[in-house]
Design brief:
By secondary structure, the protein is mainly alpha-helical. It has 13 helices and ten strands. The chain has a three-stranded antiparallel β-sheet with strand order 6-5-7. A three-stranded antiparallel β-sheet has the order 9-8-10. A hairpin with a 6-residue loop joins strand 3 and strand 4. The model has no long low-confidence stretch (mean pLDDT 85).
């Protein structure tokens, strides 16, 4: 089965105009200048998005009412449903962290899935009511902030961290959440934004032109956000990210300290995940964005393709730093056995959450088209 014929698409990352050929199953059109994927094609792509989105939404609903995890120690048992993790943070006066976790793991993914269902349904019927443009806008906006799969990895890390303290039982909602994360990931893979834009608008919208004002605004905002992220990163690593109350004794734990404890206990893979996601990724993202912003400010012409690849890398992996925040959210909700053993969030949790979000916004604010603005070879 062949794709429908497209005409010319202007790459949103380097502004190169590309004549897109007819695609066949599992083919993609790539910009010859910067390597950005312009279009992908799979047979029954729209139907797959619709089926996967409906399935994911059903599994999301099933992950809420039943038991998610159970924690048993010294003859005392505590079990939680998924919403309890947000309620536990709220009850400990961490309202902002509870809101962030709830939005990123349940609300935003649910809104994205409902938006995809609406878009796919009306595309299947070939109907274009006016409100679809608003639905499309919100799906694009919320996609980067939907972190269900990251929450799942954070949950697995938290289980490994406390497996030596007590017996852990996995409930029905946990399996439903795994299915929800898998279906949503597959749905996002099949969802081609440019293809839906072409169907909705009759063309892939042309990127906004680069002006002197837009260049200045992009550079200044990116600098401001990077400075903010750097300042937040200091308390995020120096202050405790959580407190463990063990038989009345308080044991604070920092991000690096927790990773070292896991390494010393023999949990090498988990310790490496924490170090990579919570230490190396934020630092690397701040340094790379700093270099990219400085390079476009100075008008650097060389290495455009390498700089573009680094930008895509920071944009793609930056959100995975939220693993440690989600680990804290799960542990706070699950490990609450009074004076025997309890876990409470520390001030670093919110600071680190701020680092992740500010660097994500910095990557979005940075206009990566400026990387190609000063190149000599204009195509």
């Amino acid at each position: 089965m062949h794709d429908v014929a497209f005409t010319t698409i202007q790459c949103e990352q380097c502004l190169t105009k590309v004549d897109v050929p007819v695609l066949t199953h599992r083919q993609r059109a790539v910009c010859p200048t910067c390597g950005h994927t312009l279009l992908t094609y799979r047979k029954n792509q729209n139907e797959s998005v619709l089926a996967l989105a409906i399935s994911a939404l059903i599994f999301l609903g099933l992950s809420l009412p039943f038991n998610f995890l159970s924690f048993r120690s010294s003859g005392i048992q505590h079990q939680i449903a998924l919403p309890d993790s947000f309620a536990a943070l709220f009850n400990q006066d961490y309202l902002s962290l509870a809101i962030i976790t709830g939005l990123a793991t349940l609300v935003f993914p649910g809104m994205v899935l409902m938006g995809m269902i609406v878009l796919s349904h009306f595309r299947k019927m070939n109907l274009k009511p006016r409100f679809l443009t608003h639905v499309f806008f919100w799906v694009k906006l919320l996609l980067p902030w939907s972190m269900a799969e990251i929450f799942l990895v954070g949950t697995l890390v938290s289980l490994i961290k406390i497996s030596s303290m007590a017996d852990i039982t996995i409930g029905l909602s946990f399996y439903a959440f795994v299915a929800f994360s898998a279906c949503m990931t597959a749905c996002v893979i099949h969802f081609d934004i440019n293809r839906y834009a072409y169907w909705l608008y009759g063309e892939v919208p042309t990127p906004k032109p680069i002006t002197e004002r837009s260049i200045t605004v992009s550079i200044q905002r990116t600098w401001a956000l990077l400075i903010t992220a750097t300042l937040l990163y200091i308390p995020a690593n120096l202050l405790p990210i959580m407190h463990t109350q063990l038989f009345g004794r308080d044991e604070p734990s920092t991000i690096v300290g927790g990773a070292i404890t896991l390494w010393e206990s023999g949990d090498y893979p988990v310790a490496m995940i924490i170090i990579f996601a919570s230490v190396l990724i934020p630092v690397a993202k701040i340094l790379i964005l700093t270099w990219l912003n400085l390079s476009v400010q100075k008008g650097l012409e060389r290495g455009s393709r390498v700089r573009t690849r680094l930008y895509r890398l920071t944009e793609g992996i930056g959100r995975w730093s939220m693993i440690d925040v989600f680990v804290v959210a799960v542990l706070v909700a699950l490990v609450q056995l009074g004076n025997t053993i309890s876990i409470h969030p520390g001030p670093a949790a919110l600071a680190f959450c701020g680092v992740v979000f500010v660097t994500m916004v910095a990557a979005m604010t940075f206009d990566n088209r400026l990387i190609w603005q000063n190149r000599k070879e204009i195509t």
